[in-house]
Amino acid sequence: MAAALVSVVLTAALHAQDKRFSVRGMVLRVDPASRTFTVSHEAIEGLMSAMIMPFEVRDARELTPLAPGALVEFTLVVGAQAGYAVDIRVRKYQTAEQDPLTARRLALLKKAAGRAVPALATGQAVPDFTLIDQSGQPVRFSTVTAGKVVALDFVYTRCALPQFCLRASNVFGVLQKRFARQYGRDLVLLTITFDPERDTPEVLATYAARFNADPKMWRFLTGNAADVRRVCALFGVESYLDEGLVNHSLHTAVIDRQGRVASNIEGNQYTPEQLGDLILDVLMR
């Protein structure tokens, strides 16, 4: 009994020395075999600045909900010998849209799109498609992206809210600067409008100029409405016209060199640095 009591006391004392820190970031890679997941995380107060770091879990089953591009929150337990992650929670995207009618319409569109063309899952190959870029030239996906990593987002140029389409384009502007020198030939940025009737090549060219988009690296695509809808459906993007504006969902996809979906991120709650770190991880594979 005395020995057992000493063991309990020592165990309690050891755990009393553990420190716990809150962590937020984007998952870049998941490795169940080593029970680790790699995260581009924000600064951890009292421990370290923002960086890319692998974290260990005690049970590989804790990694099941995770995938590249997932935004997570968890607790980092740091003991005398090692640190490990617990209480991992995926942050689901919460739209800023407060209109319940709009939310219901988008939900219905998502359900309908799911019946017609299911959104691509991670690891699936992207079917080929052809759209038109800001110079009026046809762009075949398989041709311009062959052997390259692709980051792809969706906007419309008349979007009035800066936290949505404009933010997405600003993020791609940051990516263009970050990767232009070292990976400019290995990375393609594609921005696709879901308002093709108004976003003609000429309109897209003017919009692209606002961000100093280099057409060798960053292209803006439009096309006939049916073709655009098919591409949007591949990535789970829904939109509908409402009193001259477009209500829409938000998705950003990263596609690997083999043309497979590496990540499809819903929402825009990531930082440019986190999305860039995810792209870098895919580039280095």
What this model shows, in words?
- A hairpin with a 4-residue loop joins strand 6 and strand 7 (138-140).
- This protein has 285 residues and is an alpha+beta fold.
- The radius of gyration is 22 Å and the shape is elongated.
- Helix 4 (162-183) packs parallel to helix 7.
- It has 2 domains: 2-90, Copper binding periplasmic protein CusF (OB fold (Dihydrolipoamide Acetyltransferase, E2P)), CATH 2.40.50; 100-283, Glutaredoxin.
- It has 7 helices and 14 strands.
- The strands form 3 sheets. A 7-stranded mixed beta sheet has the order 7-6-10-9-8-13-14, sandwiched between helices.
Computed structural class: alpha+beta
Per the CATH scheme, the topology name of the largest domain is Glutaredoxin
Q: What pattern of helices and strands is seen along the backbone?
A: HEEEEEHEEHEHEHEHEEEEH
Tally of strands: 14
Output mean pLDDT. Answer: 87
Proportion in helices? 25-40%
Give the topology:
Blueprint: H1 2-16, E1 19-31, E2 36-41, E3 51-56, E4 71-78, E5 83-90, H2 100-116, E6 130-133, E7 138-140, H3 141-144, E8 149-155, H4 162-183, E9 187-193, H5 201-210, E10 218-222, H6 225-234, E11 239-242, E12 245-248, E13 251-255, E14 261-266, H7 272-283
Parallel strand pairs: 8-9, 9-10
Antiparallel strand pairs: 1-2, 1-4, 2-3, 4-5, 6-7, 6-10, 8-13, 11-12, 13-14
Helix pairs in contact: 4-7
